[in-house]
Specification:
By secondary structure, the protein is of the alpha+beta class. The protein is built from six helices and eight strands, in the order H-E-E-H-E-E-H-H-E-E-H-H-E-E. Strand 5 and strand 6 form a beta hairpin. It starts with a helix and ends in an 11-residue tail after the last strand. GO terms for molecular function: ubiquitin protein ligase activity; zinc ion binding.
């Protein structure tokens, strides 16, 4: 067991949180999160668990027991699935080193979460995040559907402009402010505000084009957005006079 643990420590370094190999109940604790190195700090904040592995005196000829604590961003159903998966891996590797394969399997499983904790909901619409849905997290690591957050931002910016006009009308000193996170009220950063404003602009353009497309279908022609006139297609030419 000590040789196997030395290998793990050389690979995972500080992610081996605790080890007790010489007591009556030998165990180790491992911090596990998705393996995407580019977003490692994000992953540690959003999708993470501590795996406790408890060994019997007969290890590795007996399957160890697994426990989970400090779970964040992972739903209970998936914790149960992880437990089943790693128990099966342990059963296949009886009598051999198994810990590296167990830890890597959990990391690979968590990697399917991407950067969005599945246990979270958008606090604006209160719906879960579904695969393929565009999601934005703010600096405070609160997650929202991008469409929900961009709409919220548009209203927030309008409110700020109204407050500013009201202050100017009554000659009250105006202290500029930026929109805040809908959940914790931390100010949004400038870059995120600009990205969301651009997203809103694109969405509004798409909505206008959809209306034009519906007009096109009804009229049976192509609509030029700028001139808003119809070029009729597939219409039989009018007969020449006298024919």
């Amino acid at each position: 067991m000590e040789e196997e643990l030395e290998i793990l420590e050389s690979i995972y370094n500080d992610d081996i949180l605790d080890k007790n190999l010489h007591g009556e109940n030998p165990s180790i604790e491992v911090l596990i999160y998705p393996p995407n190195s580019e977003n490692e700090e994000d992953n540690k904040k959003n999708i993470i668990l501590t795996l406790i592995i408890k060994f019997s005196k007969n290890y590795p000829n007996e399957i160890p027991k697994f426990e989970f604590k400090n779970v964040k961003g992972i739903i209970d159903q998936d914790i149960k699935e992880i437990n089943v998966r790693i128990t099966e891996i342990a059963a296949k590797n009886i009598g051999e080193h198994m810990l590296f394969e167990i830890i890597q399997d959990i990391k690979d499983f968590l990697n399917s979460y991407g950067n969005v904790p599945k246990s979270c909901k958008c606090s604006i619409c209160l719906n879960n995040f579904e695969d393929g849905t565009k999601v934005t997290h703010l600096d405070c690591y609160h997650y929202f559907h991008t469409s929900c957050l961009s709409t919220f931002l548009a209203y927030a910016l309008n409110d700020i402009e109204d407050e500013k006009r009201e202050a100017e009308m009554h000659k009250i000193k105006w202290k500029d402010r930026t929109p805040c996170c809908p959940e914790c009220r931390q100010s949004m950063n400038t870059s995120q505000i600009e990205d969301l404003k651009q997203f809103n602009t694109i969405r509004q353009t798409q909505a206008k084009m959809k209306i034009l497309f519906e007009k096109q279908k009804k009229a049976g022609g192509i609509i030029e957005p700028k001139e808003d006139f119809i070029i009729v297609l597939n219409r039989a030419p009018e007969s020449e006079p006298g024919t």
